[in-house]
Design brief:
The complex is a heterodimer of chains A (306) and B (266). With 306 residues, chain A is of the alpha/beta class. Chain A folds into 2 domains: 2-156, 3-Layer(aba) Sandwich (Rossmann fold), CATH 3.40.50; 163-305, Rossmann fold. Chain A has helices at residues 2-15, 32-37, 49-61, 80-88, 117-122, 135-147, 194-206, 224-233, 249-259, 283-289, 294-305; strands at residues 19-23, 42-44, 65-71, 94-99, 128-130, 152-156, 177-180, 185-190, 211-216, 218-220, 237-244, 267-272. In chain A, the strands form 2 sheets. Chain A has a 7-stranded mixed β-sheet with strand order 2-1-3-4-6-5-10, sandwiched between helices. In chain A, α1 runs parallel beside α6 and α3 packs parallel to α4 (80-88). The mean pLDDT of chain A is 97. By secondary structure, chain B is α/β, with parallel strands linked by helices. Chain B has a single domain (3-264), classed as Rossmann fold. In chain B, α8 links the parallel β4 (200-205) and β5 (224-229). Classes of the chains: A alpha/beta (306), B alpha/beta (266). The interface between A and B is medium-sized, with 24 and 28 residues.
Chain lengths: 306, 266
């Protein structure tokens, strides 16, 4: 998905010289094509995310459409006040691209786990929050970000969906994708963890449980209609995210239900529960360790329906 | 324009605004009133009828707590009605204590949290360079503000990218929030620090208009850092060089005495 972002932004930047990409000295080899193709629209700001984000604001004030690029929490937490005061308050088209969602960099340790970023970014007034699960969504969000007003956040995962369960056809920003139709329970997820949801869905299906699977590539704005329909049409909602439960995707889904006075018959959330990970491991390993994998999803669904 | 008169008017406006609003940072505005007057009176290119004119010079007040000063400078330069100044700090007003751009023509950028404005100015200067535009970017930062690491990120970046269209003016009044700069976190040798980062560093008396004019307008092949030696509370004898007047608002007899002193000094 990272390479897809670069491919799309390079194509767009060739046609629109307002588009500007700034890296915080990360993206070895990955950014080469953009740099070679659009050198005047590129900047390596060095390892200085506060300055990078302030510069992005300055460029956007001059009419540029800016993308800041880094990994994990560096382009969000490290420069949060710059994002709040300089970017969001001025309603600037500055888009933060963070590679390494959730446990993508699992073995690198806690500093490189992006597990609170959705909560942080979606609290920011005017911020659009995109969390793709496949190439078409990554491409679509990137294109949408260049056209919208105000700031954006693109959370790029190391895992993604391919084959029949990936997006196909036209992309419509913020509309939840129905990956599987079903009637018993609705499984909702953001990002690459959809792969765990799909494994669980297949197993549950063989056990006679019919799951609707919805993939949300946008947490803000969120597709309220899809959530409300799931409340009414299925027997419960389970949200799945590679992120802390506090303020994340599941929280956003529950807010939609409460705000609209539409209540799912059963509701549960899978995610990190008020912890940092100090455990070393791959993304797959850490999902299992923190009970966010397909087995955990199956168990939770069975409990919900029991 | 008579910049001495403009500086005096800005000080009187700010005294009145903070008196009416019962809050503000008088000492912090008074230390930069002369810099603002020289910038808006002579140095900056702008069009009050078209505040977003593409070729204007950009000015950012990074030490946003001196917002009353920029509001007064803009009103006196014709960007908006002077009467609006009296709404400063009032319920429902656009004129917040820290400078905000919303609803105020001429304000390039909102500040208040320290250490933000210089990087934004760097972005504007970089954009002008890439577009081969001739306008300049001026940023005022406070001395206490230079405690912030982000200032030094921007200081490192600007000479590396040859941003000689960027001018930073440091209001070196040597007093910060709780104590003197020397006692809180010493900046000395201050001008040497900027020099060593690659800035064309110019040390001037921040209340001497001719020195400021020369320092602000003499071109350079490097970004320019003007270390303006200033006096906090400059212009009213009992406010000068005191921490108290970083916070205090002049009321009653104090207000009358301050206004009298400013009127007699023109």
């Amino acid at each position: 998905m990272r390479d897809q972002f670069i491919e799309t932004i390079t194509e767009l930047a060739k046609k629109d010289d307002r588009i500007f990409l700034i890296t915080g000295d990360l993206g070895f080899k990955v950014l080469d094509n953009f740099i070679a193709t659009c050198p005047d629209q590129f900047l390596n700001a060095g390892i200085a995310e506060q300055n990078m984000t302030g510069i992005a604001a300055g460029l956007a004030l001059e009419g540029r459409i800016v993308f800041t690029y880094s990994i994990a929490n560096f382009p969000t937490f490290r420069c949060l006040e710059q994002l709040r005061n300089d970017v969001a308050y001025h309603d600037l088209n500055v888009n933060v691209v963070s590679v390494g969602a959730g446990f993508s960099y699992g073995a690198l340790g806690m500093s490189h786990h992006a597990t609170e970023d959705i909560a942080l970014m979606r609290s920011m007034p005017g911020m659009t929050v995109g969390v793709p699960s496949d190439f078409i969504e990554t491409d679509g969000i990137t294109r949408f970000f260049t056209e919208k007003k105000g700031p954006g956040y693109l959370r790029i995962d190391k895992s993604w969906i391919t084959g029949d369960n990936a997006s196909s056809g036209d992309f419509s920003f913020s509309k939840a994708r129905v990956v599987k139709e079903g009637t018993d329970v609705t499984l909702m997820s953001v990002g690459g963890i959809l792969e765990e949801v799909l494994v669980a869905e297949e197993m549950l299906s063989s056990l006679g449980v019919s799951c609707r699977v919805l993939s949300f590539h946008s947490v803000k704005p969120i597709d309220s209609a899809a959530i409300i329909a799931a409340c009414k049409e299925t027997k419960g909602i389970l949200t799945v995210e590679e992120h802390v439960l506090d303020g994340g995707f599941g929280s956003a889904v529950s807010e939609v239900c409460m705000d609209n006075n539409v209540f799912p018959k059963k509701f549960s959330r899978i995610g990190l529960s008020n912890v940092f990970s100090s455990v070393v491991g791959s993304q797959k390993y850490l999902r299992k360790h923190y009970k966010m994998d397909s087995n955990a999803i199956i168990e939770r669904v069975q409990k919900m329906l029991s | 324009m008579d910049t001495l008169k403009l500086a005096n008017t800005i000080r009187k406006d700010v005294l009145r605004m903070t008196n009416l609003g019962s809050s503000g940072h008088i000492g912090s505005v008074f230390s930069i009133a002369d810099i603002l007057a020289v910038l808006y009176g002579e140095v900056l290119s702008y069009d009050v009828k078209n505040p977003t004119w593409e070729d204007r010079d950009r000015f950012i007040l990074s030490k946003g707590h001196a917002g009353a000063g920029i509001y007064a400078a803009l009103a006196r330069s014709g960007f908006f009605d002077v009467a609006k100044l009296d709404t400063h700090y009032k319920d429902g007003s656009d004129l917040s204590g820290h400078v905000s751009h919303k609803g105020i023509p001429g304000v390039e950028f909102s500040t208040g949290a320290l250490g933000h404005g210089l990087s934004v100015g760097v972005g504007m200067a970089l954009d002008a360079k890439r577009k081969k535009k001739d306008h300049k970017v001026f940023v005022i930062v406070g001395d206490g503000e230079c405690d912030e690491g982000s200032i030094w990120e921007a200081a490192l970046f600007s000479p590396h990218h040859n941003l000689n269209n960027l001018v930073v003016i440091v209001d070196y009044n040597k007093i910060q929030s709780l104590n003197t700069v020397e006692n809180v976190l010493s900046l000395e040798p201050f001008s040497d620090k900027w020099k060593s980062f690659g800035w064309d560093t110019r040390v001037v008396d921040g209340h001497d208009h001719e020195s400021l004019r020369v320092a602000l307008t003499t071109p350079s092949s490097s970004p320019i850092a003007i270390i303006a030696n200033t006096v906090k509370g400059k212009g009213v004898s009992f406010m000068e060089n005191t921490i108290l007047w970083h916070y205090r608002t002049a009321k009653g007899e104090e207000y009358d005495a301050a206004i009298k002193e400013l009127e007699e000094s023109v």
